[in-house]
Amino acid sequence: MPETLTAPDPKRWKALVFIALAQLMVVLDATIVNIALPSAQADLHISDGNRQWVITAYALAFGGLLLFGGRISDLWGRRRTFVIGLIGFAVASALGGAALNSTMLMGARALQGVFGALLAPAALSLLAVMFTEAQERAKAFGIFGAIAGGGGAVGLILGGVFTEYLDWRWTFFVNIPFAVVAAIGAIATIHEPAEARNPSKLDVPGVVLATLGLVSLVYGFTRAESDGWTAGWTIGLFVAAVVLLGAFLFVESRVKAPLMPLRVLMDRNRGGVYMSLGLAAIAMFGLFLFLTYYLQIVRGYSPVTTGLAFLPMIATMIAGSTQVGARLMTRVPARWLMGPGFLLAAAGMVLLTRIDLNTSYATGVLPSLLLMGLGMGTAFMPAMSLATHGVQPRDAGVASAMVNTSQQVGGAVGTALLNTIAASATTSFFTDHMKDVMAGKPKKVLMFESMVHGYTTAVWWAAGILTLSALIALVLVNAGHQGGPKSAASGTPGEAAEDAIPVMAH
After folding, report:
1. How many CA atoms lie within 13 A of 255 on its CB side?
2. Region (Disordered): which ranges (predicted)?
3. What would the CATH number be for the domain defined by 1-197?
């Protein structure tokens, strides 16, 4: 993306309102459904083994198609792609709200992910081409980031309110007015500079191979729960994923206009950032799911109370990102913020493994959430900035999309993997302790104890994965601090700081 394209658009600040509104909708949708999931599961009779597909279907479609969405916005034009994404997202939300069974709900979630993958890259690249002056651009990204960062908190609260006082279906229907207003506003105010287009050919083989490879990978983790890790289906899917993704990398090294230029991946620092962020997403996405179920099913919290329970983590995440990471990243090398940040979040997870049937929120859950939020915010800030720092302008969009892709795919894998681990541990615990029921223990108590054992086992794994993420950051990422002059693609540190917030909210 060139740094300067044309004279600034006079309607750019009005356009920002509708771009930020669209981003708010996407971020809100990611958290609002988490809170509503237990109610939707009960209403549509979704099995415990399949429930994570309500989350995974969205994350996989979104993550698998982000690079494709970025390329489409270059070819079709960003405004057109943005509006199509909004309309499609509204239609998919209507289908989700009207879902009659689990298949319809999961299909709607996947469709939301498809249109979200068109919407998200188009929104960010519109900001980049409409705000070309450095200070204005930093301010625009700041506003965008603040609104989108708050979207996670808004989603948690609205999810609880709708589920408790209306119906879980309203967590889908609420997207429709957002999308309609944003689409009408975009058509009226966004005028994309013609020079911003990048009319290269679409890498169709790359799109097909990357998407099929990622689907095989996540489906493999899901089948492991029902069939076992050594079952033919499970092994076959993992082998297919390796072959397809290997073929994708081979194709990308040969085509003229690759979907994913390998020069972006091969950079040591960016590669380290993508790996550490992907692993961190594996840990965090699964954790949100288990903690929601623990608070609602085991502790008996209402959906509204569950939403409020997550707010301290959102607050410390924003504080860690804007007050710690943003202030130190121009003085301290990124790895010395990323490594300790991920380790702090891992420590919060270790604290969470102490939960039982009667754990107090104030002493058992809250300290863990505060540590996790502060650690992840501190680590994500410099990581997001470094991912695009010094990258060539022509690769800026791809580098940004890769950050989102690594997180969304990590989230999809994490939800499937940790759900599999938790379900296996729950079943084993229940089987091993059936003698307690014979001795007089209520079966319901054993069921809850088994569930909590499953959750804590998965959280131990998540803590280990976060520790690995910290080690990768410390070993692979060797760039100095980011206090030098900004590159054309990377934007100012302030941009990166604010942009770090919405991604984590996903």
Report:
1. 20
2. 484-506
3. 1.20.1250.20
